[in-house]
Amino acid sequence: MDEKKYAKLEKEVSPKTPLMRNVIFAFLTGGTICLIGQFVSMFYMTFFDFTERTASNPTVATMIFFAMLLTGFGQYKKIAQFGGAGSAVPITGFGNAVISAAIEHKSEGYVLGVGGNMFKLAGSVILFGVFSAFVVALIKTILVKFGVVSW
Which of 29, 41, 69, 135 has a Cα at 20 to 30 A from 78? Predict the structure, then answer.
């Protein structure tokens, strides 16, 4: 079978992707996760006297914790199946990636299984996030030192 016939056959047999439905579900899922994050942030600002700026770190940690709990109980997978990229893009997707890799390798033991594989997927995100923060801080320091900008 040549490439043209194969491409035609593949197009006929492959199911059609409901693109608009997927986009709407991703938007609703991501928006709902962000709305919950906003409520968490407002909770910290109201009850713990955080400012908008200082509430961001505990909000991120709380959202990651929620995602890890939902992943552990098998519920985040259902959210991801419904919302697709809408569940992967917010910070909760990071928490899901970390804990799901750990759960997958639980049978290999806590040290080599869970500990060794926990950051397999998320390790590169952490590495490049830290490296990018270092580069930006270095550029900012140089610009401030030479008086190009003032902070």
Answer: 41
